[in-house]
């Protein structure tokens, strides 16, 4: 019995030991199970994230596929348009060649017609100038103005016998003879013809107006002879040739134009500048013109060839120019960089002699003997330069005198005794060019005076302003 109990006790002990081992195994398995469950949960979360990303990628892929299809359609449309444009371009090229050929034919026919017209005019001018010369000389002698001498065998204004004036002593204008409107806007330029029987004005309304001026009827009227049109922008400068056959106009549309004084027709449109043209003058005779532009160049034009014969690069915007000899071989130009440049058209040297001043140059004018140069500049002074010594001899200034524009024009009187210029307040200042004395200040304009001009006889002066007005002044 004791043995059985001992065995049972041993069996019980073994069972307790087995139970403990099994409990420990259960605990270990439970821990492992928990770890496995955590791993499974983490794997499930990762699977969920991956499935979400996959769904997003699938959606994005569908959008991209849709975009690709749309782009392919757009590319197909663009290819079709490109082919259509190429066909249209080919057709336009053919049309352009046809139009260019037609233009060349029309230009050739036009040039032939103009040459024929010019021959007809030239043939009729010889007889006209002989009769007109006698008439001008008689009228001027009666008016006690400039006297025209016509050498034997010559015609007025021909290279062999240009107009010559016996200039009387200029008088200081003291009163307004007449005041009248000339343009629909600013009047930028005014100039008398060599005989003094006409004057021209240029305005911001794109017109050059030609006016008759008679000494006998000076106080009553100055009939407008014509409005010369063709410019696409405001006129900045006007000039007559010596023969008074043509009037020249520079414009802000980068061009220079030439009109006939008698028939009032546009003869030439000289294009080629790349900026506003502020100055243009006849060079020696009516067959050559020189122009200065804000494109920093001066151009010489051959009217017979209807082309630019020479371009001079100044390096600065040109505001005005003059020709210092009758042959037109010497040109003086005034520039934005405060320099006055001297050019010899016969020289192959591209560089010019120059004089540096204190202000931007707005205008130039030569004395009647061509030995002195009047320079107007934006430092509110006029300077008289002796061309024989190339140095400033006189500086003219006054309280209240102000140069308002880059195209303000100052001039000598016909006898070169006086210098006159308009001011920004509407006043006109007149100095004695020999003594620097301010002789007179004229006040009648209500806006800035842009340009002044003197009648060749010395008894009358013209001025224009920015409010359409031209005033004729006299001492008489």
Question: Which geometry do the CA atoms define?
Answer: elongated
pLDDT averaged residue by residue: 88
- Cα(first) to Cα(last) distance is 175 Å
Helix content: 25-40%
Provide the spatial order of strands within the biggest beta sheet. 1-28-27-26
- The parts where pLDDT drops under 50 for at least 5 residues are 144-165
Give a quick account of the main beta sheet: strands, pairing sense, barrel closure: 4 strands, antiparallel
Order of helices and strands: HEEEEEEEEEEEEEEEEEEEEEEEEEEEE
Number of strands: 28
Structural class: alpha+beta
Strand content: 25-35%
**Rg (C-alpha, Å):** 45 Å
Number of helices: 1
Structure explained in plain terms:
- The protein has 476 residues and is an alpha+beta fold.
- Helix content is 30%, strand content 35%.
- The chain has a four-stranded antiparallel sheet with strand order 1-28-27-26, with no helix packed on it.
- A hairpin with a 6-residue loop joins strand 14 (318-323) and strand 15 (330-335).
- The termini are far apart.
């Amino acid at each position: 019995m004791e043995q059985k109990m001992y065995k049972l006790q041993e069996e019980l002990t073994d069972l307790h030991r087995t139970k403990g081992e099994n409990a420990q195994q259960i605990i270990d398995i439970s821990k492992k199970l928990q770890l496995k469950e955590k791993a499974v949960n983490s794997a499930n979360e990762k699977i969920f994230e991956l499935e979400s990303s996959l769904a997003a990628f699938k959606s994005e892929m569908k959008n991209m596929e849709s975009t690709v299809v749309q782009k392919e359609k757009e590319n197909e449309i663009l290819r079709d348009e490109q082919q259509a444009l190429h066909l249209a371009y080919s057709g336009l090229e053919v049309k352009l060649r046809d139009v260019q050929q037609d233009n060349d034919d029309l230009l050739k026919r036009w040039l032939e017609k103009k040459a024929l017209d010019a021959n007809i005019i030239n043939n009729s001018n010889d007889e006209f100038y002989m009769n007109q010369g006698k008439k001008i000389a008689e009228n001027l002698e009666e008016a006690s103005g400039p006297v025209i001498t016509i050498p034997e065998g010559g015609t007025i204004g021909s290279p062999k016998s240009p107009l010559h004036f016996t200039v009387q002593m200029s008088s200081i204008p003291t009163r307004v003879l007449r005041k009248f409107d000339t343009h629909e806007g600013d009047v930028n330029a005014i100039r008398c013809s060599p005989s003094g029987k006409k004057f021209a004005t240029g305005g911001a309304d794109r017109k050059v107006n030609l006016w008759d001026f008679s000494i006998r009827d000076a106080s009553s009227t100055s009939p407008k002879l014509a409005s010369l049109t063709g410019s696409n922008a405001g006129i900045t400068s006007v000039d007559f040739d010596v023969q008074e056959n043509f009037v020249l106009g520079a414009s802000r549309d980068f061009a220079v134009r030439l009109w006939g004084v008698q028939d009032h027709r546009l003869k030439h449109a000289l294009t080629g500048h790349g900026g506003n043209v502020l100055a243009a003058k006849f060079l020696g005779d009516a067959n050559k013109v020189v122009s200065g532009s804000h494109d920093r160049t001066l151009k010489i034009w051959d009217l017979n060839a209807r082309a630019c014969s020479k371009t001079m690069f100044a390096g600065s915007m040109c505001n005005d120019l003059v020709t210092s000899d009758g042959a037109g071989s010497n040109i003086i130009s005034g520039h934005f960089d405060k320099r006055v440049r001297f050019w010899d058209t016969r020289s192959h040297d591209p560089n010019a002699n120059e004089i540096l001043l204190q202000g931007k140059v707005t205008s130039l004018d030569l004395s009647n003997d061509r030995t002195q140069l009047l320079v107007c500049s934006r430092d509110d002074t006029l300077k008289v330069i002796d061309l024989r010594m190339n140095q400033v001899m006189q500086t003219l200034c006054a309280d209240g005198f102000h140069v308002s524009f880059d195209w303000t024009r100052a001039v000598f009187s016909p006898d070169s005794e006086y210098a006159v210029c308009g001011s920004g307040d509407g006043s006109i200042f007149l100095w004695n060019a020999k003594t620097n004395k301010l002789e007179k200040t004229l006040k009648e304009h209500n806006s800035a005076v842009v340009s002044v001009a003197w009648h060749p006889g010395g008894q009358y002066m013209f001025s224009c302003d920015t409010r359409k007005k031209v005033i004729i002044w006299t001492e008489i």
